[in-house]
Amino acid sequence: MENNDIKKIIAPSPMMTEDGKNELYLYSLKKMADRNAEVDRYSLTGLYGNVAFFYKANECLHTHLGKQYALIRMDIYRFKTINEFCGRTEGDKLLVYISDCFKKYEAEDAVAGHLRADIFALCTPYKTDQDLINIVHDIAQKIESFPLPCKILPAFGICKSEFGMDISLLIDYANLALQTVKGRVFSCYAFYDETLRQQLLYEKKIENEIIPALNNHDLEVYIQPKVNMLTKEIIGGEALLRWNHPQDGFLLPIQFIPVLEKSGYIVDVDKYVWEEVFHSLRQWIDKGYKVVPISLNVSRLHSYQTDFEQVLYGLAEKYNISRDLVQLELTESALTENTELVLKTMSNLQKNGFYLSMDDFGSGYSSMNMLKDEPIDEIKIDRVFLSDISTIKSRIIIKHMISMMTDLNINIIAEGIETLEQADFMLECGCYRAQGFLYYRPMPMSEFEKLLQLI
């Protein structure tokens, strides 16, 4: 039935009372629900399909007005791999088993649905949030106990109808909540609440405004100098970013970089920073300054860009910049993801003159393996280690870490030096290069240029 046909059914006469409108709407909704319930059931599990669930759930919401309702949506993390590893027959058995878990909660005022593939939903009344949590825990425990030779990780998103949404929005917002916990081992559910709503709105705002900000040059490149702790000489710098937002003021990286990483816009932002740095290096050289190498942060997402290497080669050629003046900083987590591709790309860049630095060394779990396999010129010791040098264990770890790097002929720089005690300890261990507030804070390009004039 087309939307216009539905409107004809439920359109009230001019003389109809408000109660009459509601009765006619409920009558029409029930007719549509019953009609779809007969023809739209998931063949494998027998639960209502997407369309039938929509109508039946809406009927519940409008029939039981005195009850609070919520929508629970469930998805299995990497269900396709279960089919591939265990076979489609076993995967189908799991889906039938899950449908039985949901059918347990069907009632005159509650509806379960199998929306598609491994996605299930339950529209149910509740009195407290704990009622909903209990349902989730019950279904999750049963699913996790299903006999399969691979781990099953269900994820649940919960959206309460108190937000005034119809069933389609409840489903969508429950899915947004679900995505925040999908794949996690120790947290299998999340509520769509005001906090999540504000977070999602903020993320969307950042995504919508980042391209105009790039075009308007609202993003400003800052440089934090690196120093030789013995001589206090500036030996380099790291390019960082600040957003001079026209309405919200000065935004620090922590306020927008994670959003850009998630959305993929970090690739555009990185290229913007790279262009600014290459351009500035050219200007400083032309002015006769003694320039120092500048580090560029490289997101893990660049390893998926087919033109990644060519962009850097092109910038070096465009501005006639020696590649040893540009250092590429990758986080440890970036080097552990898609390792083969990253290794190949980084090796190519290193062979063609770029200097490679591993940022946040020691913050992950694969540091030692990466030192053996990756083409690394330098490691930056994570500030977490330096924040606790008062303990004997921390001092021993740092001391031996630096000794090992020296034996491997890998350069070392201490990140986050903020106190004289930290600086003295690193010097005692044989690390002479540092970056931190004790020496310099991040500064605009123009201020860094003034420092270059003194070198």
Name the overall outline: elongated
**How is the main sheet built?**
8 strands, mixed, barrel
Note the gap between the termini: 78 Å
Average pLDDT taken over every residue: 85
What is the level 1 CATH name of the largest domain? Alpha Beta
Strand order of the largest sheet: 6-7-9-10-11-12-13-14
Poorly predicted parts: 1-21
Q: Determine the CATH topology of the largest domain.
A: TIM Barrel
Explained architecture:
By secondary structure, the protein is of the alpha/beta class. The chain folds into 2 domains: 40-192, Reverse transcriptase/Diguanylate cyclase domain (Alpha-Beta Plaits); 205-452, EAL domain (TIM Barrel). Helices cover 49% and strands 20% of the residues. The protein contains 18 helices and 15 strands. The strands form 2 sheets. Strands 6-7-9-10-11-12-13-14 form an 8-stranded mixed barrel, surrounded by 4 helices. The longest helix is centred in the N-terminal third of the chain and has 22 residues, at 18-39. Residues 1-21 have low confidence and may be disordered. GO terms for molecular function: cyclic-guanylate-specific phosphodiesterase activity. InterPro entries: Cyclic-di-GMP_PDE-like, EAL_dom, EAL_sf, GGDEF_dom, Nucleotide_cyclase, Rev_trsase/Diguanyl_cyclase. It comes from [Clostridium] fimetarium. Residues 203-455 form the EAL domain.
Topology:
Blueprint: H1 3-10, H2 18-39, H3 50-63, E1 68-76, H4 79-86, H5 88-103, E2 111-116, E3 119-126, H6 129-144, E4 154-160, H7 167-179, E5 189-192, H8 194-215, E6 219-228, E7 234-245, E8 249-251, H9 253-263, H10 266-286, E9 294-297, H11 308-318, E10 326-331, H12 332-336, H13 339-351, E11 355-361, H14 367-373, E12 378-381, H15 383-386, H16 392-407, E13 411-415, H17 420-429, E14 433-435, E15 443-444, H18 445-452
Parallel strand pairs: 4-5, 7-9, 9-10, 10-11, 11-12, 12-13, 13-14
Antiparallel strand pairs: 1-3, 1-4, 2-3, 6-7, 6-14, 6-15, 7-8
Helix pairs in contact: 2-3, 4-5, 10-11
